[in-house]
Amino acid sequence: MIQHLLDGILVGAILSLGAIGLTMTMHMLRFANFAHAELLSIGAYAALVFDGLFAVLLPQLDAALPMLSLTWTLSLATVLSMGLTGLSAIAIDRLVFRRVREKGGELSMVFASFGVAMVIRNLLGLGFGLNTQLYSDEIVFAQVLSYEPLVLVKPDQVFALIAALVLMFVLHLVLSRTTFGFSLRAVAENPSLAQVSGINLQRMVALIWIIGGSLAAVAGIFYGLTNQITPVIGRDLVLPIFAATIVGGIGSIYGAVLGGFLVGVAANLALVILPSGYSPSVPFLILVLVLVLRPHGLFGEAREA
What we know:
Blueprint: H1 2-29, H2 38-57, H3 72-103, H4 106-128, E1 143-147, E2 150-153, H5 155-177, H6 179-189, H7 191-196, H8 201-226, H9 233-248, H10 253-269, H11 282-293
Antiparallel strand pairs: 1-2
Helix pairs in contact: 1-5, 1-8, 1-9, 1-10, 2-3, 2-4, 2-8, 2-9, 3-4, 3-8, 5-6, 5-8, 6-8, 9-10, 9-11, 10-11
């Protein structure tokens, strides 16, 4: 059970990063963006391209960090991938979602997000192929934390968890200690009131797309670092990310973080008593229970339509 708990925490960190951007955009723009998980795929493949480019241009940096499969070139590629994915999120909004917002309703936005997700997924498949890829061919063996009971963990997983927690802490400081953070939180929690208070809503929406896209890129890279890179990363993670967002409460950034860990831990602990094919349903059982007891999620609040 300890092994499953640890694995759940590691998975939860990735889900939390993906859920943060989703909860903000869902609360502000009031639609379920099923294309958000595809930003994880964009980030993962953008890092793969930049990593290969830097490995050619800067071969002296193409060396793995101690005990990790992560290289210095991939670290640099991660930064560029965050920027590119954030810009991609803005481009998708301006090319598709903003146009649909101006002419259609919430259901039209949801259907449009399904279409965008399919387009992105198939473009990645056409461009990179359907086979799985790895950031590194180096084999990094799991470390034994305990023999009784046997608990194994890969250094890459520990790094991804620590890096995710650091990013969340930095975001917390930005949201709680800066004027920009106060404005960002105001827009995420109540866009109409924020606009009346003099905040440039369109500018803040763009910044939230950038933040959400950047964090999604990191989540995709960490997923690829600890698993494999495929064009269907978004398809595999979209429902757990939505579950984390709704359990935590739409509009609550801290709720999204907690929801991500709850979903990750629940899915992995379920493996103790359920066949692996049934474990993905457990987070949604928790989702139903939370919504029955607290319809707005753990940290969400009711808002007017």
